[in-house]
Amino acid sequence: MREQGLAADSPVLRLDRAGVSFGPDSDVLADVSLSLSPGSLTFLTGPSGAGKSTLLKLAYLGLRPTAGRVSLFGVDTTHLRRRDLAPLRRRIGVVFQEFRLLDHLTAYENVALPLRVLGGQEKAYRQDVIELLTWVGLGDRLDARPATLSGGEKQRVAIARAVVVKPDLILADEPTGNVDEEMGERLFRLFRELNKRLRTTILIATHDLALVRKSKADVLRLADGMVVRVPHAAEPKSPPQ
Amino acid sequence: MSAAASPLLPKEDAREAALFFVVCALCFLAALSGLVARSAYAAADAWTSDVSGEITIRVRGDDAALANAVEITKATPGIATARPITRDEAEELLRPWLGAGGVPVSLPLPRLIAAEAAPAADAPDLLRRLAAALKSAKLDTIVDDHLVWSGDVRKSIDLAGLVALIAVGLLGATGLAVIAFATHATLLARRDIVEILHLSGAQDGYIAGLFERRFLMLGVQAGALGALLAFGAAAFILYLLRQSVAQIWLLPELSLSLADGLILGMAPLVAGAASMIAARVTVMRSLSDMV
Ligand SMILES: Nc1ncnc2c1ncn2[C@@H]1O[C@H](COP(=O)(O)OP(=O)(O)OP(=O)(O)O)[C@@H](O)[C@H]1O
Ligand SMILES: [Mg+2]
Predict the structure, then answer these.
(1) Which of A8, A12, B40, B87 is positioned for an S-S bond with A201, CB 3.0–4.6 A?
(2) What is the whole-number distance in angstroms between the Cα of residue A24 and the centre of ligand 1?
(3) Of B90, B115, B144, which closes a domain?
(4) Which residue in chain B has the smallest CA separation from A62?
């Protein structure tokens, strides 16, 4: 999966004056520039509706910017053909805010889905998937379908699915929004481990300021369609909403 | 842990049952049209080649007139053979209408001449010359024009065949449209699957493949059942024809042949291939709208 033929320290994700608007005078993102270096762990904060999910969508190539550029792994995606985007997507694991689990698949099958897309053999990945689900506390719910899982359980399946291919970049949208503090910390520890051991670059959009403060990671704050890098000591305790 | 992984595209029983029915019905109609067209051609072929060389001449008058007419007919260029039909032969021909009891002796039967045209003869011209020759010998005769008549049969059969072909074509096009429509519906209904596969880095061909396989199977199965039903219907129609009208109208070649087997065997293949192509085109086009 790691086909980093490019300069080792070129940013994993880079937005250059990127803008997104869904209508004539509604810029969700006005002018966003940011750069994530390999192996970094960064939080993305900002009030609800600020455009955090939209920014992540740009990053996982679910949306083309209406202005500016998006580069992934040192490749400018602006003029790439559709079929050349797929290999980039395979290096990205996404935890969607609304999970997006497939309701006809079991928890196990949902997690295994990206491996199936990559053409993996079940024999080869089966143990990894079970271990990962056990790690997130769902070792006894392998055969459960999403409809029978709680919000927090679904979220953990979604996280397992995002990390199962050991991607180079993880984009997580409110990954601890539906779990208690203890589970939240446990899940964050999973990201931290991947970040430390595999040098996975991680961007986490979150409202969970307690988590942000404790982590001492870099923080990007999104407001008025722009991103500002916040020195972590300066992250406000109660942000203006 | 279940051993076999669930299909990425779940079965959708209600929609697929309806689609199966439609494709099956279309295949049934198409195969039946094909069979009807095929056997109409075959029947016409046998029929017209039986009679096309034949000319029947009715002679009013005595045996001398008959003998004279035979001589004149034989002498006409373009006629291969000519001979009088005996009373026994005439009775044999009339048996279906008059029953096995035979023809009453008192019933005067027309005197008939059976002639055969030479293979390359120009039918209307030959008939005109023959009639003129008989008339100039002062004989009261009527020349039956199987030749012209068989040409008309050919034309109508050709027309019927064309209509059947158009019907098959229309049914095929309808099938393609229906499958495309159904693929689209499935695609919309399961957009979540398509999107998550797409975002996981699946190429369009991989996603299209899921739909292709699904609709290929459906097309082959529905086509096979449709063809089987068409075979049953054709066999039943043949049975009815044999029971009632076959002897009277002397319908030849009413049987299922190798060509029919080919038509029936093609139905599932064509339906499967068409379904697969329709699904692929629909999915690929819809995916090309995504980033
Ligand atoms: N497809 C879309 N069409 C139109 N408007 C959209 C679309 N997607 C997002 N928006 C708008 O963009 C704005 C930002 O949405 P987004 O989901 O990115 O915010 P967010 O920061 O993730 O919010 P939250 O913290 O509540 O998740 C919202 O005002 C939303 O209405
Ligand atoms: Mg959001």
Answers:
(1) A12
(2) 16
(3) B144
(4) B291
- Could you tell me if B208 and B111 lie in one domain? no
Nearest-CA residue of chain B relative to A90? B201
ipTM above 0.85, yes or no: yes
Residues B186 and B214 in one domain: yes
Domain boundary among B116, B144, B172: B144
Position B120 confidence tier, pLDDT thresholds 50, 70, 90: low
Ligand 1 pocket test target in A20, A21, A53 with most atoms within 8 Å of CB: A53
Write b or e for each residue in A126-149: b if 16 or more Cβ atoms lie within 10 A of its Cβ, otherwise e: eebbbebbebbebeebbebbbeeb
Instruction: Give distance in angstroms: CA of A173 to centre of ligand 2.
Output: 7
Atom number in ligand 1 closest to CA A22 = 4
Same domain? B198 vs B280: yes
Model pTM score: 0.76
Cα–Cα dist A99/A174, whole Å? 10
* Domain range for B99: 54-144
Chain segment A75-114, per-residue pLDDT in tens: 999 999 999 999 999 999 999 999 999 999 999 999 999 9
Q: List, for residues A192-223, the tens digit of each pLDDT value.
A: 999 999 999 999 999 888 889 888 889 999 98
How far apart are alpha carbons A199 and A6 in whole angstroms?
16
Residues B154, B285, single domain; the answer is yes
Structurally, chain B folds into a number of domains equal to: 2
Of B248, B269, B241, nearest to B36 (Cα)?
B241
Q: Are B229 and B28 in contact (CB under 8 A)?
A: yes
Structure token pair of residue A46: 């900002």
